[in-house]
Amino acid sequence: MDVMGDKATLFETGRFVQPSSREDTETPDETGELADEAAEELRQRLAAEAGDVEAMSVLGAMLLRRGDLDGAEPHLRAATAAGDRAAANNLGVLLHQRGYAEEAAGWWRIAAVAGSAAAAHALGRHHRERGDEPAAEYWLRQSAEQGHTLGAYALADLLEHRGDAAAEQWMRVAAERGHREAAYRLARALDRKPARETDGDNGVQAAEEAEQWYRQAAARGHRRAALHLGSILERRGELKEAGRWYLTSAKDGEARAACALGFLLRDAGDTENAAVWWLRAAQDGDGNAANALGALHAERGETQTAERWYRAAMDAGDVNGAYNLGLLCAEQGRTTQAEQWYRRAAYAGHREAANALAILLLQGGDETGAEPWFSKAAEAGSVDAAFNLGILHAGRGEEKAALRWYERAAAAGHTEAALQVGIARLRDGDEQEAERHLRCAAGGGSAEAAYRLATVLDARRPPEPAHELGEPVHRRSECEEWYERAASQGHRRAQVRVGMLAAARGDVVEAARWYREAAEAGSRNGAFNLGLLLAREGSEPEAAVWWTRAADAGHGRAALRLALVYARRGELAEGQRWADRAVSLGPDSVTERAARLRDALRQELSA
Fold first, then answer.
1. Is the pTM of the predicted complex or chain greater than 0.90?
2. 358: number of Cβ within 10 Å
3. How far apart are alpha carbons 502 and 476 in whole angstroms?
């Protein structure tokens, strides 16, 4: 028997056929194509009627592809009986479509034994559907080893399901032969490799290879691959190309890509088009997009529309919808409803909702009810909740427990927690550890941390070296930089300190600027020092104004200065009044001097 080669192969689904004798390289005119197909069918039919086995096989495949099962079956059976393995394979496909799976498998087996890779693939799929994995693997391997792309992919899928490391090899084979789903899954596998397998150069190489396979699958129309490729490019800052791939994926119906494209447009300032894509994604069931629409309408003050979209997000299974509803209600003062939504999200595992619920309960005086929710949120990874637990324990005087939670939050990058740890370590005398945490907090933008770090560095700063002629040489130190950073952020004590440093080096204008900023922000030391500076410059009346402000805020030395000013002016009663105030304010050295001045003024008044 003369065994012929495959004249028809399965489509990508593995359940349909097409002639292998022709590959279209361009889309022909539809009318011309139909005429060509009709002419080809007539030619094959005449040849089949003349007994040409190959023509019987090809004609059967053509009719099968068109869905004419009744017309295809006699030709395929005749060609199969004559030993055509492609006909046997396609006869199996036909019988499978009719629902005769076992008979189909019998013909596939005949074709596979005769060397048909397509039939081996179909037979392997048949056995896997029935749970016979050993038989499935045997036939899929036969197909894959003969170079059948779908066989390689199906074998890889089976091995991956079993956790077999050889899955990647066959997935790679299928991907290299142009199978887009294999390319996508290979990229995903490379993405998901454990960190221990992708350290250093290996990690970079795996990421680059994953991107290459995403790109190949996306170029072949795989919408999820286009989504992942867009995400990679966005993280790398290549926003224009990322947007193109998101757009490609979104147009193919990928809701997550439409959502991501919306965020990209929003970040570029195009909220109108962002809303269009979010709407499209939300209507396709994307909860994240519904949340984004809710936030957009909330920003515009359209609270009813925002609430509707948050509810849509929640209905889509996105727990952020309930959390956002809680936030919306809280902003409107609807505390009861806010608590209900926070609870719903918190019970679903939303850690920030648990933290928000705890804050709401704490504000209502329910500390006992708040603490478990803070703990739940913190254990789930909420940095804010860990910090809040620290505050809770510190308020009870439980310093050790507070420090543990502060340290946990600080380790996760919480600026205020790092400041609290730094303060605690300073209190314990661990200056090195304190400095480390204060640097973290100051680097994170905490003005208080910057000031405290500056004081630590200032305390260990050596004296200024003297110039060879005896004049001090000023070198800008690190502590001054931290003082200035804190001062520029509005820290009043830092502003006073920067002013003092400026005055020490003779920069009166700079000193006055910083003193004035501190004083106007309510610093009594700033007001007092500004008064001293003005008095030295001969502006005693203005100096008295600032000393009055400082004394009214409880500054004893400012009150003493005012007593002296009024005594010199001959306003003894006013001088005595400020001297009395200085005595009461202190400190001790001021109290002593003010008492002597008061007594002297009293004697003068009674004389």
1. no
2. 30
3. 11
